[in-house]
Amino acid sequence: MYHFQWLALRIAELGGDISVARYPVYLEAPSFKELILLDSKAEKEAVSQYKAHIAEIVDPRTISLLERIISDEERHAEKFALMAEKVADVEKSPGEELSPEAEAKRNKLIEMLNSGVKHEYSVVLQYLHQAYSTKDRGFGHSLEQSAITEMKHMGWLAEHVAEMGGKPPVERNTLILADKEEDMIKANIEDEEKALDLYEQQIADIEDEELKQLLETIRYHEEYHKEEFEYFLKQSVEKAAKEKTAPVNETKRKVPFTVGSLIKK
Ligand SMILES: [Fe+2]
Ligand SMILES: [Fe+2]
Ligand SMILES: [Fe+2]
Q1: Of 10, 44, 78, 120, which has the fewest CB atoms closer than 10 Å, so is most exposed?
Q2: Which domain holds residue 174?
């Protein structure tokens, strides 16, 4: 996530668009050991990619950033390789036998929690993208904090799903990556409202007290997010109104270099 942040902020500095596209993620392997080895492989692939990029770049600052990331990824690759050795003996314990009725109930619950996982994953990406794109550092910081909270929500729900023998999805809803700050915030408020509806419904439907409490905590956080966004929306609207009435002073952003000048020809 730090690497994502550093690269994204560098891209924003250069006036570029931050990508939220992703490479394939490895979720399945014949064994857990092989799954972890795929993580190690992904880290090594990242190292090769960053090395190839360094070979094409002349800008020392970007090179030093990529070198820093490479050193982290190399450590990650080793860490995963060692981890794979340690988990070699871990076998999947056979799940308990359930009556068809109990199984249907369990599957329904997994499906419910997974809709939360999907929501959380989507807003993590959306808020981070906005946090790194906006020039308003206060708003950016708040977005980043919200993204971190959403990531916790995703983790809590996904762990619950996994404990019940389900598979948490790594799929996302459509992300709203609006250009205008006001539109971004409005989309976020709508997302938080949807989350509030979702969790309220789940709290009403779920019997498990512990799970209910977890969802109450998440619901409360979403309420807070919504209020935060409403505050920033008010600020953004006021700022826009002020800019409208003030004499317009056309200041074009000065670009001291072009992306082309940072790349080896
Ligand atoms: Fe890594
Ligand atoms: Fe959330
Ligand atoms: Fe939220």
Answers
A1: 78
A2: 99-244
